[in-house]
Protein backbone atom coordinates (compact mmCIF):
# COMPACT_ATOMS: atom_id res chain seq x y z
CA UNK A 1 0.00 0.00 0.00
CA UNK A 2 1.33 3.42 -0.96
CA UNK A 3 1.92 5.59 2.11
CA UNK A 4 3.44 9.00 2.47
CA UNK A 5 6.44 9.14 4.80
CA UNK A 6 6.45 11.41 7.85
CA UNK A 7 7.14 15.01 6.89
CA UNK A 8 9.14 16.16 9.89
CA UNK A 9 9.32 13.36 12.47
CA UNK A 10 11.24 10.16 13.05
CA UNK A 11 9.11 7.25 11.78
CA UNK A 12 10.21 5.19 14.82
CA UNK A 13 8.36 7.47 17.27
CA UNK A 14 5.60 5.79 19.31
CA UNK A 15 2.01 6.74 18.43
CA UNK A 16 0.43 9.83 19.94
CA UNK A 17 -2.10 9.21 22.70
CA UNK A 18 -5.43 10.96 23.24
CA UNK A 19 -3.91 13.69 25.42
CA UNK A 20 -1.31 14.52 22.77
CA UNK A 21 -4.05 14.79 20.16
CA UNK A 22 -6.12 17.08 22.39
CA UNK A 23 -3.16 19.44 22.75
CA UNK A 24 -2.55 19.46 18.99
CA UNK A 25 -6.24 20.14 18.33
CA UNK A 26 -6.09 23.17 20.64
CA UNK A 27 -2.91 24.42 18.98
CA UNK A 28 -4.63 24.20 15.60
CA UNK A 29 -7.11 26.75 16.93
CA UNK A 30 -4.54 28.96 18.66
CA UNK A 31 -0.87 28.27 18.11
CA UNK A 32 0.18 30.61 20.93
CA UNK A 33 -2.28 29.33 23.54
CA UNK A 34 -0.66 29.44 26.96
CA UNK A 35 -0.04 26.37 29.08
CA UNK A 36 -2.92 27.42 31.33
CA UNK A 37 -5.26 27.84 28.36
CA UNK A 38 -4.25 24.45 26.95
CA UNK A 39 -4.82 22.84 30.35
CA UNK A 40 -8.28 24.38 30.65
CA UNK A 41 -9.24 23.31 27.11
CA UNK A 42 -7.95 19.75 27.39
CA UNK A 43 -8.64 18.90 31.04
CA UNK A 44 -4.98 17.96 31.47
CA UNK A 45 -2.90 19.42 34.30
CA UNK A 46 -0.77 22.42 33.39
CA UNK A 47 2.44 20.60 34.36
CA UNK A 48 1.50 17.64 32.16
CA UNK A 49 0.60 19.97 29.28
CA UNK A 50 3.98 21.68 29.59
CA UNK A 51 5.89 18.39 29.42
CA UNK A 52 3.83 17.06 26.53
CA UNK A 53 3.99 20.29 24.56
CA UNK A 54 7.78 20.46 24.90
CA UNK A 55 8.05 16.89 23.61
CA UNK A 56 5.61 17.41 20.72
CA UNK A 57 7.57 20.45 19.57
CA UNK A 58 10.98 18.84 20.03
CA UNK A 59 10.05 15.72 18.07
CA UNK A 60 8.26 17.97 15.52
CA UNK A 61 4.97 16.16 15.76
CA UNK A 62 3.64 19.69 15.41
CA UNK A 63 5.39 22.82 14.14
CA UNK A 64 4.18 26.30 15.04
CA UNK A 65 5.27 29.06 12.69
CA UNK A 66 4.42 32.64 11.91
CA UNK A 67 2.87 33.17 8.46
CA UNK A 68 3.11 36.59 6.82
CA UNK A 69 1.45 37.17 3.42
CA UNK A 70 4.39 37.71 1.04
CA UNK A 71 2.88 40.92 -0.35
CA UNK A 72 3.08 42.48 3.11
CA UNK A 73 6.85 42.14 2.85
CA UNK A 74 7.14 43.38 -0.71
CA UNK A 75 7.23 39.90 -2.29
CA UNK A 76 4.74 40.42 -5.10
CA UNK A 77 5.25 37.26 -7.17
CA UNK A 78 4.36 33.79 -5.89
CA UNK A 79 4.82 30.75 -8.09
CA UNK A 80 4.76 26.96 -8.23
CA UNK A 81 7.20 25.00 -10.39
CA UNK A 82 6.82 21.35 -11.38
CA UNK A 83 9.93 19.47 -12.47
CA UNK A 84 10.73 16.22 -14.23
CA UNK A 85 14.40 15.33 -13.82
CA UNK A 86 16.90 13.02 -15.45
CA UNK A 87 18.62 10.83 -12.90
CA UNK A 88 18.56 11.10 -9.13
CA UNK A 89 15.75 13.25 -7.75
CA UNK A 90 17.54 13.66 -4.41
CA UNK A 91 20.55 15.26 -6.10
CA UNK A 92 18.42 17.85 -7.87
CA UNK A 93 16.39 18.58 -4.73
CA UNK A 94 19.55 19.24 -2.75
CA UNK A 95 20.82 21.55 -5.49
CA UNK A 96 17.58 23.54 -5.32
CA UNK A 97 17.88 23.94 -1.55
CA UNK A 98 20.74 26.36 -2.24
CA UNK A 99 18.14 28.91 -3.34
CA UNK A 100 16.27 30.45 -0.38
CA UNK A 101 13.60 31.77 -2.75
CA UNK A 102 12.18 28.23 -2.83
CA UNK A 103 10.19 28.03 0.40
CA UNK A 104 8.71 24.60 -0.35
CA UNK A 105 10.64 21.74 -1.97
CA UNK A 106 8.99 18.33 -2.18
CA UNK A 107 9.43 15.19 -4.25
CA UNK A 108 6.34 13.36 -5.44
CA UNK A 109 4.96 10.27 -7.12
CA UNK A 110 3.00 11.09 -10.26
CA UNK A 111 3.41 13.24 -13.34
CA UNK A 112 6.22 15.34 -11.82
CA UNK A 113 9.24 14.44 -9.71
CA UNK A 114 9.56 17.68 -7.73
CA UNK A 115 7.22 20.47 -6.69
CA UNK A 116 8.52 23.90 -5.66
CA UNK A 117 6.76 26.92 -4.21
CA UNK A 118 8.54 30.24 -4.00
CA UNK A 119 8.19 33.97 -3.59
CA UNK A 120 10.20 36.77 -5.21
CA UNK A 121 9.90 40.52 -5.47
CA UNK A 122 9.22 40.88 -9.20
CA UNK A 123 8.57 38.92 -12.38
CA UNK A 124 12.06 39.85 -13.54
CA UNK A 125 13.50 38.24 -10.42
CA UNK A 126 11.44 35.11 -11.14
CA UNK A 127 12.83 34.79 -14.67
CA UNK A 128 16.37 35.18 -13.37
CA UNK A 129 15.78 32.60 -10.63
CA UNK A 130 14.31 30.04 -13.02
CA UNK A 131 17.20 30.52 -15.44
CA UNK A 132 19.80 30.00 -12.70
CA UNK A 133 18.20 27.17 -10.79
CA UNK A 134 16.06 25.16 -13.22
CA UNK A 135 16.52 25.97 -16.91
CA UNK A 136 20.30 25.66 -16.79
CA UNK A 137 20.37 22.59 -14.53
CA UNK A 138 22.00 19.69 -16.43
CA UNK A 139 19.62 17.11 -14.94
CA UNK A 140 16.41 18.93 -15.88
CA UNK A 141 14.18 17.08 -18.33
CA UNK A 142 11.04 19.25 -18.28
CA UNK A 143 9.52 21.97 -16.16
CA UNK A 144 6.34 24.02 -15.86
CA UNK A 145 5.92 27.14 -13.74
CA UNK A 146 2.55 28.65 -12.79
CA UNK A 147 1.90 31.98 -11.12
CA UNK A 148 -0.06 31.84 -7.87
CA UNK A 149 -3.00 34.23 -8.13
CA UNK A 150 -4.39 33.79 -4.63
CA UNK A 151 -4.69 31.47 -1.64
CA UNK A 152 -8.43 31.44 -0.92
CA UNK A 153 -7.92 28.95 1.94
CA UNK A 154 -5.95 31.59 3.84
CA UNK A 155 -7.68 34.47 5.64
CA UNK A 156 -7.88 37.48 3.38
CA UNK A 157 -5.21 40.09 3.99
CA UNK A 158 -6.94 43.21 5.31
CA UNK A 159 -7.08 46.09 2.85
CA UNK A 160 -4.01 48.23 3.28
CA UNK A 161 -2.14 45.72 5.47
CA UNK A 162 0.67 45.48 2.96
CA UNK A 163 0.87 49.28 2.79
CA UNK A 164 1.61 49.85 6.46
CA UNK A 165 5.30 50.67 6.80
CA UNK A 166 7.31 48.07 8.69
CA UNK A 167 10.45 49.33 10.41
CA UNK A 168 13.55 47.29 11.17
CA UNK A 169 12.24 46.14 14.57
CA UNK A 170 8.94 44.95 13.02
CA UNK A 171 10.89 42.94 10.47
CA UNK A 172 13.15 41.48 13.15
CA UNK A 173 10.11 40.39 15.16
CA UNK A 174 8.56 38.88 12.03
CA UNK A 175 11.79 37.00 11.38
CA UNK A 176 11.72 35.49 14.86
CA UNK A 177 8.14 34.24 14.70
CA UNK A 178 8.49 33.01 11.11
CA UNK A 179 10.95 30.49 12.54
CA UNK A 180 9.20 29.85 15.88
CA UNK A 181 5.61 30.93 16.34
CA UNK A 182 5.69 30.28 20.10
CA UNK A 183 8.87 32.22 20.84
CA UNK A 184 8.37 34.10 24.09
CA UNK A 185 8.25 37.88 24.17
CA UNK A 186 11.33 37.80 26.42
CA UNK A 187 13.27 35.86 23.77
CA UNK A 188 11.99 38.14 21.00
CA UNK A 189 13.04 41.18 23.02
CA UNK A 190 16.53 39.77 23.60
CA UNK A 191 16.96 38.97 19.90
CA UNK A 192 15.67 42.34 18.70
CA UNK A 193 17.15 44.64 21.32
CA UNK A 194 13.79 45.86 22.64
CA UNK A 195 11.94 45.47 25.91
CA UNK A 196 9.56 42.55 26.43
CA UNK A 197 6.66 45.00 26.71
CA UNK A 198 7.57 46.67 23.41
CA UNK A 199 8.04 43.30 21.70
CA UNK A 200 4.63 42.12 22.93
CA UNK A 201 2.90 45.36 21.84
CA UNK A 202 4.48 45.26 18.40
CA UNK A 203 3.67 41.57 17.94
CA UNK A 204 0.03 42.07 18.91
CA UNK A 205 -0.29 44.98 16.50
CA UNK A 206 1.20 42.88 13.68
CA UNK A 207 -1.41 40.20 14.42
CA UNK A 208 -4.28 42.69 14.74
CA UNK A 209 -3.32 44.29 11.43
CA UNK A 210 -3.42 40.93 9.65
CA UNK A 211 0.30 40.92 8.91
CA UNK A 212 1.25 37.96 11.15
CA UNK A 213 -0.79 34.81 11.70
CA UNK A 214 0.43 31.94 13.90
CA UNK A 215 -0.24 28.52 12.36
CA UNK A 216 0.15 25.04 13.85
CA UNK A 217 1.20 22.35 11.39
CA UNK A 218 1.01 18.77 12.69
CA UNK A 219 2.86 16.03 10.87
CA UNK A 220 -0.06 14.28 9.08
CA UNK A 221 1.20 10.77 9.74
CA UNK A 222 1.33 11.48 13.49
CA UNK A 223 -2.41 12.17 13.55
CA UNK A 224 -3.36 9.13 11.45
CA UNK A 225 -3.34 10.69 7.97
CA UNK A 226 -0.92 8.38 6.17
CA UNK A 227 -1.48 9.45 2.57
CA UNK A 228 -1.05 13.06 1.47
CA UNK A 229 -0.21 15.04 -1.61
CA UNK A 230 -1.50 17.55 -4.13
CA UNK A 231 -4.57 17.49 -6.34
CA UNK A 232 -4.87 19.80 -9.35
CA UNK A 233 -8.29 20.39 -10.89
CA UNK A 234 -9.45 21.11 -14.42
CA UNK A 235 -12.65 23.16 -14.34
CA UNK A 236 -15.64 23.82 -16.55
CA UNK A 237 -17.24 26.39 -14.24
CA UNK A 238 -15.97 29.64 -12.70
CA UNK A 239 -13.07 29.09 -10.34
CA UNK A 240 -14.68 30.77 -7.34
CA UNK A 241 -17.72 28.50 -7.52
CA UNK A 242 -15.48 25.45 -7.20
CA UNK A 243 -13.36 27.04 -4.47
CA UNK A 244 -16.46 27.59 -2.35
CA UNK A 245 -17.39 23.92 -2.67
CA UNK A 246 -13.85 22.81 -1.81
CA UNK A 247 -13.96 24.78 1.44
CA UNK A 248 -16.46 22.24 2.76
CA UNK A 249 -14.27 19.17 2.05
CA UNK A 250 -12.49 18.24 5.32
CA UNK A 251 -9.71 16.27 3.59
CA UNK A 252 -8.61 19.38 1.68
CA UNK A 253 -6.10 21.71 3.32
CA UNK A 254 -4.75 24.75 1.52
CA UNK A 255 -6.30 25.78 -1.79
CA UNK A 256 -4.33 27.63 -4.45
CA UNK A 257 -5.66 29.47 -7.50
CA UNK A 258 -3.03 29.47 -10.25
CA UNK A 259 -2.45 30.31 -13.86
CA UNK A 260 -2.25 27.43 -16.34
CA UNK A 261 -4.37 24.47 -17.39
CA UNK A 262 -5.02 23.38 -13.78
CA UNK A 263 -6.40 26.55 -12.19
CA UNK A 264 -6.87 25.06 -8.71
CA UNK A 265 -4.27 23.19 -6.71
CA UNK A 266 -5.00 21.87 -3.24
CA UNK A 267 -3.38 19.69 -0.62
CA UNK A 268 -5.12 16.52 0.54
CA UNK A 269 -4.56 14.42 3.66
CA UNK A 270 -6.35 11.08 4.08
CA UNK A 271 -6.05 7.95 6.19
CA UNK A 272 -5.35 5.43 3.43
CA UNK A 273 -6.03 4.41 -0.15
CA UNK A 274 -9.69 3.65 0.49
CA UNK A 275 -10.18 7.08 2.01
CA UNK A 276 -8.42 8.63 -1.02
CA UNK A 277 -10.70 6.74 -3.44
CA UNK A 278 -13.71 8.24 -1.67
CA UNK A 279 -12.19 11.73 -1.86
CA UNK A 280 -11.36 11.34 -5.53
CA UNK A 281 -14.90 10.22 -6.33
CA UNK A 282 -16.31 13.15 -4.34
CA UNK A 283 -14.17 15.67 -6.23
CA UNK A 284 -14.94 14.22 -9.67
CA UNK A 285 -18.67 14.36 -8.86
CA UNK A 286 -18.39 17.99 -7.74
CA UNK A 287 -20.10 20.45 -10.12
CA UNK A 288 -17.45 22.35 -12.04
CA UNK A 289 -14.68 19.73 -11.77
CA UNK A 290 -13.95 18.17 -15.17
CA UNK A 291 -10.74 16.29 -14.37
CA UNK A 292 -7.95 16.07 -11.81
CA UNK A 293 -4.27 15.25 -11.53
CA UNK A 294 -2.72 13.72 -8.40
CA UNK A 295 0.77 14.02 -6.98
CA UNK A 296 1.42 11.89 -3.90
CA UNK A 297 3.77 13.26 -1.28
CA UNK A 298 7.09 11.43 -1.34
CA UNK A 299 9.66 13.44 0.64
CA UNK A 300 9.61 16.94 2.05
CA UNK A 301 12.95 18.73 1.79
CA UNK A 302 11.90 22.21 2.90
CA UNK A 303 8.79 23.94 4.15
CA UNK A 304 9.33 27.36 5.62
CA UNK A 305 7.63 30.74 5.79
CA UNK A 306 10.91 32.61 6.23
CA UNK A 307 10.71 35.06 3.39
CA UNK A 308 10.86 38.79 2.82
CA UNK A 309 13.31 39.90 5.51
CA UNK A 310 16.87 41.03 5.00
CA UNK A 311 18.63 38.55 7.29
CA UNK A 312 20.12 35.36 5.79
CA UNK A 313 17.98 32.26 5.92
CA UNK A 314 18.26 30.08 8.98
CA UNK A 315 19.07 26.40 8.63
CA UNK A 316 16.31 24.54 6.89
CA UNK A 317 13.48 23.35 9.10
Largest sheet data: 8 strands, antiparallel, barrel
Instruction: Write down the secondary-structure element order.
Output: HHHEEHEEHEHHHEEHEEHE
Q: Compute the gyration radius: what is it? A: 20 Å
What's the overall geometry? globular
Q: Structural class per helix/strand content? A: alpha+beta
* Beginning-to-end CA distance, first to last residue: 28 Å
Average of per-residue pLDDT values: 93
In the predicted model, the low-confidence regions spanning at least 5 consecutive residues are: 311-317
Count of individual beta strands:
10
- The percent of residues in helical segments reads 25-40%
Q: What's the total helix number?
A: 10
What order do the strands of the largest sheet run in, or round the barrel if closed?
Answer: 2-4-3-10-7-9-8-5
Report the portion of residues in β strands.
25-35%
Would you give an account of this structure?
There is one protein chain. This protein has about 325 residues and is an alpha+beta fold. Helix content is about 35%, strand content about 25%. The protein is built from ten helices and ten strands. The chain has helices at about 20-30, 35-40, 45-60, 90-95, 125-135, 170-180, 185-190, 195-210, 240-245, 275-285; strands at about 60-65, 75-85, 100-110, 115-120, 140-150, 215-220, 225-235, 250-260, 265-270, 290-305. It has an eight-stranded antiparallel barrel, surrounded by four helices. It has a two-stranded antiparallel ribbon with strand order 1-6. Strand 3 (about 100-110) and strand 4 form a beta hairpin. It starts with 17 loop residues before the first helix and ends in a 14-residue tail after the last strand. Mean pLDDT is about 95; it is low at about 310-315.
Amino acid sequence: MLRSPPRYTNPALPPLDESDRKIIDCLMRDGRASGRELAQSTGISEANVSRRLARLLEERSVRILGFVPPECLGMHVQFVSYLRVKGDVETVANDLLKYPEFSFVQSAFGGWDLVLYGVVHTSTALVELLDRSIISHPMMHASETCTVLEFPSQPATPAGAGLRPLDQVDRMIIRQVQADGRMSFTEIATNTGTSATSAADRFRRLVADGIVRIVAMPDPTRIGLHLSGLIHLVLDRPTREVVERLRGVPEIGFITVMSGSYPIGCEFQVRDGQHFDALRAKLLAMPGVRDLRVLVHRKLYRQTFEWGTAEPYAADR
